[in-house]
Amino acid sequence: MQIPDETPATVVAQNEGQVPVAAASPRRLTRFRIRRIEAVFAATLLIYAVLAVLAHRYAYFTWDLELATWIQSISLPGFHTLMKWISLAGNGATPFILVLLTAMVMVVARLRLEAVICSIGAALGSILDTLLKEISDRPRPASSLVQVLGRYTNESFPSGHVFFYVEFFGFLLFLSLVYLRPGLRRTVVLTILILLIALVGVSRVYLGAHWPSDVAGAYLGGGIWLWLMIAVYRRLRT
């Protein structure tokens, strides 16, 4: 006797004492993931936009001063030296040299598309960061408010160092997850990249180069730009 409206999979599940579960359409799951990613992207962009508007209006926030004062009060052995070293990769022409050398290594390793995305993404990201700084027109932290351990020019929001670290080292982090096999080498590389991205924000505040809100804006803006770089890479890769 035939049993209507029941698929073989459902019958098997019932025979095994299991509750039948409707199989979700792969296309529907893909659409759901895309919508979720788009929602996160839109929320991040909105938060950045709000922070950018406020940064244009206010030279700093109360919590900026409180958090910067706390960070600069850290007196752990070697902390000052570590903060200076962390920022070196973003000083002067160093970013250009790093990107150039990395692209050359990628080309030799036959990762030409990766080299192109890394180079163009970092270059356009630098231009974007400069434009965002000019739009915000926010002054750097004043020495009368915090310790300024260096001479800094240009506008303050968002932090150029943090923006570069997120887009460049973040893209290398993505490639490491894709190409490196699980093991000690992969763990070491990922740990170094994550620490560089995480600590550069602390470094910029500690050195008096930026307010914490400048750093937060750069993490948001750089994260958006990194997402676009990876999206373009994945589209061209397929």
Mean pLDDT: 88
Number of strands: 0
Query: How many domains comprise the coordinates?
Result: 1
Order of secondary-structure elements: HHHHHHHHH
Strand content: under 5%
Structure description:
- The relative contact order is 0.14.
- The model is unreliable at 1-14 and 19-23 (pLDDT under 50).
- This protein has one domain (25-237).
- The N and C termini lie far apart (49 Å).
- With 238 residues, it is an all-alpha fold.
- It is built from nine helices and no strands.
Features:
238 residues, mainly alpha, 9 helices, 0% strand, globular
How is the topology of this model organized?
Elements: H1 8-15, H2 26-57, H3 62-72, H4 79-86, H5 94-108, H6 112-136, H7 160-179, H8 184-206, H9 212-237
Question: TL;DR of this structure?
Answer:
With 238 residues, this protein is mainly α. The protein is built from nine helices and no strands. Helix 5 (94-108) packs antiparallel against helix 6 (112-136), helix 7 (160-179) runs antiparallel to helix 8 and helix 8 packs antiparallel against helix 9.
